[in-house]
Amino acid sequence: MKSQTNLKAKKEKAQRVFLYLVVFGAGVSVLAIELAASRLLAPYFGSSIFVWGNIIGIILIALSLGYWIGGKLADRHPDTEYLMYLLMGAGILTSLIPLFFQFYTKLAAVNFSFLTFLLAGSFLAMVLLFFLPVFLLGMISPFAIRIAISDVQSSGKTAGSLYAFSTLGSIVGTFLSAFILIPFWGTKETIYLSALILLVFSAWGLKKKPAFFLLMLIPIALYFVTKGDNIKPVAGLIYEKESPYQYIQITESGDRYELRVNDGLGLQSIYDPNNILVDSYYDSYAVLPYFVHPNRAKDVLLIGVGGGTISRQYLALFQNRIPLDIDAVEIDPEIINAAKQYFDLAQQPISIHVSDGRTFLEQTDRRYDILIVDAYSQQIYIPFYLTTREFFSKTKDHLKEKGILAINVNAASRNSNLLNRILQTLKSVYAHTYLSPLGEGYNWLVLASESDLDLESMKQSVDNPILQPVANDVISGFEEIEINSHYPVLTDNRAPIELLTEKEIMDYLFKKS
Fold first, then answer.
1. Is 357 annotated to bind ligand?
2. Which end of the chain is more exposed for a tag (fewer CB within 10 A), N or C?
């Protein structure tokens, strides 16, 4: 009798340990799937706060429903085998996410309008691909608690311990995915590993039915089937990589190379080995030394160097006048590596700093003749902390007496709320703020200085024939900005840049349609 009691106690203890491992593994998988979702969606839908809102919202809805329905089912079927089937289902569905996502993006791109694809695509992707596996994972903890509770008096302790282990798994899943798996292995691989963890536990729990161990081959097989596939196939693709910051893509068309990140709605850099000017808004920056004086504009700071388009133009056009000293700041080292490989950045005699632009300004004492901000953290979103009064005050401290701050702003029209709030924020810091539309597109050149810019002198001083048309375009729409209290100043405490930018996207797309 005693031996039977001991055997029963050992089985109950083994079962309890196994349940703790199961909820831990489920916790790891939930957060790994959530982080991987953001990376899977970014090349197609971006990684704005709104995409993250869809990701977090759908994950929480799925988990909540899983907790609720899982608790009800657990009362009806408090059985470990039933729990293993749920775990198995979650593992199989998780394995299929990368494969189904490829079909989804192709179908969505063909059948949705671009606007719908952009705004609703990430929401539908989360609902169709991620909801069910996360819903099943949400059912795991209630089931484990119901099975583990053998004594009502210790039910609170048991439930708390299991939820603690589940949360501990989520913590491990967060750090493991963010710092190791996704950066060094890949997004799809992280999803497959999460699926494999779930299937290993479910097969072990059903070890009396060894055929279920074969299900572990599903994520392994899919890993090899999809290995080497392009993350986002496009015409002319010659390079793509997921960095810790973003998805990077370089395409080639003839002799022209283009750098894009995340959803690819805009260009980050252009390289044409046969031409200095690239027929884009970058060309407008080439006339800025004439506002200062082309023989005095020696010190230049680029925040957001990308592939080195602007620095290449400056070196080609002005290096023969005066030895330029260019500091180039780029937050993503993988952008630098790609630009050195496919652009001509490796041959440019500039100082490259891998850093955040604002952090760099905090750490340097240098002052510049020209300071250019062309940094977009999520393709078309200026980082909010590079648009605030506090940041512009810092840029002012790093300009020489007649120095110029230049910013590229994406806006659908002159009446843009985003554009005007940036203008008014600059006006609250600088004595003079100016605006010039660049072509008929989406880009606006914004200048700020403590000195009044002399347009006529600038125009007359342009002595390079290839720059004269560019200077005429910049000057033709030039206007000095006056104070307008209708547009609130952006501050570190309140700068809704993502929201304002999303409105710009909708206004621009509706204007084109």
1. yes
2. N
